[in-house]
């Protein structure tokens, strides 16, 4: 029991800990660019069905930690992103509201794929991946 508590505490602290910036300015610039790209993709993922938002926000935190202290602190203190990151860091779970939003978004995406893409094998594979992600979200996260 103590081990699980210490792992949860460490992961919570790692999300909010002071970032260790990369030494090279080129690596920092690449990390800042990737963090910004992930923030944009995460925000687009809030609107487009099938594109994950949380995954990109989580990646943005990781890239920002290596690229910019200011960007990292903005992300981990953001009123929308921070609570989800904190809950994930504390208990490795996601809010039910996020799970429901993901389910609705992926369902719309699956229906659009079925109605518009003429390749049943490709659509079937993508829908199976979506189903696997949803099962993981609801039973593990």
UniProtKB/TrEMBL annotation:
Keyword RNA-binding: no
Protein name as catalogued: YbaN family protein
Record keywords: Membrane, Transmembrane, Transmembrane helix
InterPro entries recorded: DUF454
Pfam families: DUF454 (PF04304)
Superkingdom, natural source: Bacteria
TM region positions: 25-48, 121-139
Species for this entry: Acinetobacter chinensis
